[in-house]
Amino acid sequence: MNRSLAALFLMAASSAALAQMSPAGLWRNVDDKTGEAKAEIRIGEASGALVGRIEKSLKKDAKPDAVCEECTDERKGQPIAGLEIIRGGKKAEGKDVWEGGKILDPENGKEYRASFTPIDGGKKLEVRGYLGPFWRTQTWTRVQ
Predict the structure, then answer these.
(1) Distances in Å between the alpha carbon of 49 and those of 6, 27, 98, 113, 129?
(2) Which residues of the chain have pLDDT under 50?
(3) DSSP tag of 92
(4) How many whole angstroms separate alpha carbon 42 and alpha carbon 140?
(5) What gap in Å lies between CA 46 and CA 88, rounded to an integer?
């Protein structure tokens, strides 16, 4: 009986660790220039692809009724809270990176190709946005 319990405990612990090595969860991003927290973004999976929405704006000057004024697609005029900013992105075979997705910057309305890589045991998420040959990387911190 003790071996069975130990085996179950190890399986549960290892599956919890594996779950952390995924972009799924609640993340906090920070402003590249000021270092201040900008937003909390909840990432989940739908049909095997990533979906991410702004759950809460953390900016000091954030207005609760703010909308995406710079967006150029169906998200134009949509509330920032709940705005879908991550679309697509699937786990690359044999790697802990989700690629092929897109990420929207609601401040300028631009959508970038994106990749998402859990790092530091899943406590952080490296988010890289690409525009042509250029890219920018942010490191988000797991909240949940």
Answers:
(1) 34, 17, 9, 14, 17
(2) 1-2, 4-19
(3) P
(4) 11
(5) 9
